[in-house]
From TrEMBL:
GO terms for molecular function: transmembrane transporter activity. The keyword S-adenosyl-L-methionine does not apply. PROSITE patterns: MFS, SUGAR_TRANSPORT_1. GO terms for cellular component: membrane. CDD domains: MFS_MMR_MDR_like. This is MFS transporter.
Amino acid sequence: MTLLTLCLAVLIAQIDTSVVNLALHSIGQYFHTDVSLLQWTVDGYNLTYAALLLTGGLLADLYGRRRLFMTGAAVFILASLICAGATSMSILLFGRVAAGLGAALLLPASLAIIRVCWPDPHARGRALGIWAACNGLALAIGPSLGGEMIHSFGWRSIFLLVVPIGLITLVLAVFSIPESSHPGGRHFDAGGQLSGAIALAALATAGIEFQNAPSLAAFSLAITAIAIAFFIRQESRRGEQALVPLALFTSPVFNGAMIATAAMTFGMYGVLFLLPLSWQKEGLLGPAGAGIALIPMALIFVLVSPFSGWLTERLGNRPVTSSGVGLIGCGLLLLAVTAHDESMIAAEVALILTGIGMGLATGPLMGVAVGAVSAARSGSAAALVNVARMSGATLGVAVLGSLFAIMGSNANGLSTAMAFGGGIQIAAAILAWRTTRPLPQQTG
């Protein structure tokens, strides 16, 4: 029941993310708005989520993981209702920002609860595999169900989709999740939160505006550098009471898992963004067909993820995480080589490779990152690995999207972007092999 409750939380956040993109055209027509505001309908959620993840993890450690988990679910439900009833774009954007806040409280707490409730690394690996599979399940459910709901009931219906799931999650959490916290003498770190949020938001803005507003992107990068410097100084002074204890980054295992996670989502979200766009621009598929063509990747992700913990027990972290990220790289490189083909066969093979890779690597990489620290720091570690995941996703869409546009927004652009993304994946696979270590052996 605990694992079911935590998996429902993943579905809440991921289904919401996967269906909003489908509704942007309808929202734009309804509110008579331009593309930039539609972009912020997506990015308002992403930026808030990424910027507040660190605080969500710290608050979970300080005040109780179940309490923050339930608070995040409640905020997400309220935000979804605000979006569904929005009478203007400003109200809709407010609701999307509030949804990002809910996700920032909900998901780090869910990962930290897994760390606490499954102290044995082998059992935790199996739980994380099932937890990660829900990401793929959401990718399969969201586009298919969301598209039909928009067609039948309008764009507002997609925001109501997560409300019953959220209510069930709240009820189950009361009975199935034990409360836990490890304050360790720490307190809320306002300076660290502010500088960390500014750094993450500025970095994401630079990635988003890289092509359309290069001056703003350059300014945002400068702000990022200043905020990071201030953040490091602030956290160094606070030591063990910091929002992000810098001692976490003395672990090569933790650092390797963070970098590999960011690289994994860099490639994965780049594919999810560019491939349907390219198919539609080239006239190969329409929106519905593109959504259906992506389903095999999501289903493979769902089928493989539950076995990632079992494979990790038998083969170790290194082979599973490295081969997973490497397979994603092979999928992207295959897309690069076959970008000019009119046949869909090679693209589907590449997507299947990507789905297998995501299924193998997602859960174990998160398990490596969270397991590399003490239970008292599990909330902070869970938040940081999610920061890495969201940062990689944001930069993947921005950087690979820019390469696609610079090369002509055609098959040549797709080939260039996928080749670059595939190279990043292969480098990350090598890093994962060099930094991860075998799971400790059970005793007794």
